[in-house]
Amino acid sequence: MNSQNNEKDLTLPGVVTEALPSTLFRVDLDNGEKVLAYLSGKMRMNRIKILVGDKVMVLIDPYGGKGRVVKRL
To answer: Which of 22, 39, 41, 44 is most buried, by the most CB atoms less than 10 A from its CB?
Structure first.
């Protein structure tokens, strides 16, 4: 694993506002942004369920793509 990307990792808390097909979620971040996020591999593997209204941690893509839900709070 590369440890070069730790300065680029940006994880923000948010609230799930909409559940979309194929484990996509619309998340309102605490800083006011709205992002489209997908479920991370470990959360899929361990079958962690995410519902509308759940607080989650989202890893933001530094290039402006989709975020990744890495933790349910």
So the answer is: 39
